[in-house]
Amino acid sequence: MTLHDSVQVRATGLPGEVLTPGQDGYDEAATTLFAAGTPEVVIRPRDAAEVAAALRHAARAGLTPSVRSGGHSMAGLSTHTDGMIIDLVRISQIEVADRASRQVRIGAGATWGAVAAVLQPHGLGLTAGDTRDVGVGGLTLGGGIGWLVRRYGLAIDSLIGADLVTAAGQLLHVDADHHGELFWALRGGGGNFGVVVSFDFIAQPVTSVHYGAIGYHPGDLPQLIGDWRDLMRAGDENLTTTLALTPPMFGQPASATLMCCYAGPGGDAAARALGPFRQLGAVTSDDIRAMLYAEVLEDAGRRPGGLRIETRNTLVADLGNEFIGAIETLFGGRRTALALRSLGGAVARVPADATAFAHRDAEVMLVATMVLPADATPEQAGEALARWAPLAAHGSGAYVNFLGSASEADVAAVYPPATYRRLAAVKRAYDPGNVFRRNHNIRPGQG
Ligand code: FAD
Fold first, then answer.
1. What is the CATH topology of the domain spanning 3-89?
2. Cα–ligand 1 centroid distance for 198 (angstroms)
């Protein structure tokens, strides 16, 4: 029997769409935005029963499952060099279950672009992310930070329930009254507890927003960042902004751009909220305009070839001047693009222990995107990461979804000790064998 034959046998009996090495579509299915894999089998279940069958099969065949919704894991966790990929792309229904209460039910494999397009004609939208093709599953389970975050909070703050298949193949409906601890853990604890097949959210009444970018001359960076911070601290919660700082790269000069999304009442209120930001530094461009929220989300595009991208982030409770100085130093080191995403507002009003996303006091998330050659040596990568380390040390923790690595130190940065202990207790109850370990892993531990 050849290796190919033995893989076929190990995949035999699986329901739904099944892809094994050598089949048409396998290579594409094995590859995600950030990683190329060589799984033994990719399965695309069509419902919870098929997910349960896939998990039972994986257990019998000794295949480690990796769960994929939209495939955008920056740490490449939704593909694998062996094992089974459970790709939820066929479970992507989007349904307005009750317009009056704005309740919507969304399959985990849907993308946020599809969600925005379906909800928009109903006058609805969901606080989620900024990118069309990111999956509902991964983004929601990590928290979800997007263009409505200051007005409506994280994606998980609108979540009221979920349907999940456990490691033992059991389908559970989870909400505040059913498996309450598991519901707490799903809101920030990632894919540690089972395969979520669908999410129930309360959507927001959102149609059009004011969205666009203000460009500044990137001269005095500490002044610009400090002034932006002061305005955001005092500013209207309807306004969420991201200050993107790009060093000179690929023949382009350095740039400082403020992406803005204002989701409050239109007319004068929008102009009043945005006005002070139009006087920050030397403005070089301004294209903010009213548009549908569904049109705001952008395409992720493909990863540029020949490059290796390392993404890290830190959440900052107090963006003080010392921290700003460290940002300037990192930026001067070149080849690291930075984004300061404003938080606060509705995020901060949720108690830190209400969900597994514990860093409610962060006023800013700093995301660093380090651009390295694809064949960067470990020394080159280590050097770039060493430049980032002092900033990470200054921060108060990390956001799981903007991490290109999944080390124990990363997990510790994401989950403070009390949060981790509580997550581990949930893990012991629902996945004691740590079947779901291709993630920022919570170990079941001893109790
Ligand atoms: P996947 O790679 O499919 O999943 C990631 C991980 O989540 C999996 O490894 C698995 O452990 C778990 N998982 C996924 N689905 C399930 C499920 N149904 N059941 C159980 N476990 C599951 N994040 C933000 O908050 N805001 C943004 O604006 C934002 N923008 C982004 C833009 C780009 C271009 C990229 C690449 C990422 C962005 N992210 C953003 C980060 C994003 O939230 C994470 O990458 C997230 O994991 C992507 O979800 P996914 O379903 O596409 O990923």
1. 3.30.43
2. 15
